[in-house]
Amino acid sequence: MTQIAQLAPLHSSQTDQLAALCKAAGDVLRLDILRALRNDSFGVLELAQIFTMRQSGMSHHLKVLANAGLVSTRREGNSIFYRRSLPDTTSHWSNVHEALLGGLDELPLSAALQNSIGIIHGQRAEMSRQFFARFADGTPAQQDLIAHFGLYREPLLALIDGLRLPAQGLAIEVGPGEGGFLPDLASRFDRVIGMDNAPSMLDRARQQCTDAGLGNVECLLADALASQPSLPLADCVVCNMVLHHMPAPAEALKRFTHLIEPGGSLILTELCSHDQSWVRDTCGDLWLGFDQDDLNRWAVDAGLTPGGSLYIGLRNGFQIQVQQYSKPELTTRGTA
Questions:
Q1: What band does 335 get if pLDDT is binned at 50, 70 and 90?
Q2: What is the dihedral of CA 290, 162, 146, 194, to 10 degrees?
Q3: Distance of CA 209 to CAs 138, 186, 235, Å?
Q4: Where in the sequence is the domain holding 100, given as residue range(s)?
Q5: Per-residue pLDDT for 9 more than 70?
């Protein structure tokens, strides 16, 4: 009896965990919430809008999912965003958790759910566009307090110079801003394309290229998140301090991957996670930096392989990270 009494609390705890997991998974709406959170994070109001229900009702479902360890929260300034939790490898039921998410991910999202998520992404993107439309004469002055280009230029170039790229290559910079990095790319690649969806920024980038006499750079007004079938695949795609302005970072990495030649690389310069929420209003940031684990997980899901990484010291409370990801070479099977 003593042995049974000692085992009972442990068994009870494990069965309680399973009961919470089964309760959370026993509702179609909660399963759809998990599907919507596969590679994204949303606030409770955004989720309520996606699923057309009251905030109180959505909060209840999120609490059930959180109690089961299926969702977790991350604070972005004054806002709290919900995301899917990775299986806890120390849990007796981690395989159940993993199998549940894996099975859900095999199911395509309905057109209606994709459309609702797209509306939220569109609202985020519009907030960013409206912010930068106020700065037709240049980027916000506060931007230099966060990540001045001079802080990461040399480490970024050293990483690019260490890549095994073709002698005659193409580089695409997503969101070149005023074009400060385009001359460096132009000296290393036969052809460079700068893609930006802000006409005023692109005009300044073109002027920068003209002043520098760069004949191998094209400044293209285009949205990198939209399909670009007419563009040639690049050996290197560079994205400097842009991802935190994008409405769906994980989806953005998938779009970037479509721009890369097999064997090519994606180079991301980004802020590490921070808690300085003032950047939302003063710099138009949608996200307060990123954890490397999240970037790597999104990259792998997009079909990329994590490579080198660099971290640049803190300045005014902000730390910069440079991450490199490779797109695997195409393999062909020989015949016997």
A1: very low
A2: -90
A3: 16, 9, 21
A4: 2-109
A5: no
